[in-house]
């Protein structure tokens, strides 16, 4: 993906400039992701992730309580797990794994504590769990997440993507600053 | 075939998110605290490049594109975004980056995925009674910016992409460093 040769002398930061283009790494990766997101719209449709969570829940509920699953209008609306989006999520696992394995410069930590209140790994796990719950609940209420609304939505000039993106960053920046001040 | 294409797109997306460090909660929090804007600038670049490409293609060969516009039900979309933002700042993950994080060996990312499944279950259970009514409020339908201005879509795309790239160019990535 990124040119890894000849960058060893450069500090390990995300702002590191890629050796070839003279662009910062985030810019090169952003241009590549823009190509991928446009290619996706040409090949099958815009990228999206969060819908796979309720489709997975639906698949499990269909195993244990098919009558309830058939009567829940949301599960019916979201449909079966066999959708392109599900394969996209499988791809995320493969791509993330390969990219981490082939990056010799940075080691991925098992746990990164991000808030002062995370005084143990258990506290970090708790925050990740509650955070995970809120992002998927919020994304399903809005009808999409960072990929479906913000990346794909705004790329297509959709008003919903712009409204969602503004709400996410306003709320996210406010919450991050609030936690930092010691809530 | 769409399944294979989606798999390949997912592999590329997973690798790109990993390399830009979007799957690092510490990096996400640095962005939300406005100390390091690299992920925000990465996203804006992605959007601008994708926008220019799809709307150039749309002007030349619209039959090639699989656009899929989500409805703008203002209250639900904005409220969902606010809830999402709180979870984003607390956990440092979004629904895709926690999958990438788990695949690169982050233990907390597995808890984020578990939380996401519980969130989806809660949403499913509350949908009929609480959420569907909210999702009907102020529904503008599947609207795009070009539906509101009397300009061709490609012109709107170039203006918005230009504004995003200008923002990317002007904002410093980290405190005290140019670009």
What string, H for helix and E for strand, traces the elements of chain A in order? HHHHHHHH
Strand tally of chain A is 0
- Tell me what portion of residues of chain B adopts beta-strand conformation: under 5%
Mean pLDDT of chain B: 96
Question: Which percent band covers the strand fraction of chain A?
Answer: under 5%
First-last Cα distance of chain B: 41 Å
Distance from N terminus to C terminus of chain A (CA atoms, Å) equals: 40 Å
* Number of distinct helices of chain B: 7
Shape descriptor of chain B reads globular
Q: For the residues shown, what is the average pLDDT of chain A?
A: 90
Computed CA radius of gyration of chain B, to the nearest angstrom: 19 Å
Briefly note the structural class of the backbone of chain A.
Answer: mainly alpha
Q: Strand count, sense and closure of the main sheet of chain A?
A: none
Model description:
The complex is a heterodimer of chains A (183) and B (179). With 183 residues, chain A is mainly α. In chain A, 64% of the residues lie in helices and 0% in strands. Chain A contains eight helices and no strands. In chain A, helix 7 (146-155) crosses helix 8. With 179 residues, chain B is mostly helical. Chain B has seven helices and no strands. Chain B is globular, with a radius of gyration of 19 Å. At the A-B interface, helix 1, helix 2, helix 4, helix 5 and helix 6 of A face helix 1, helix 2, helix 3, helix 4 and helix 5 of B.
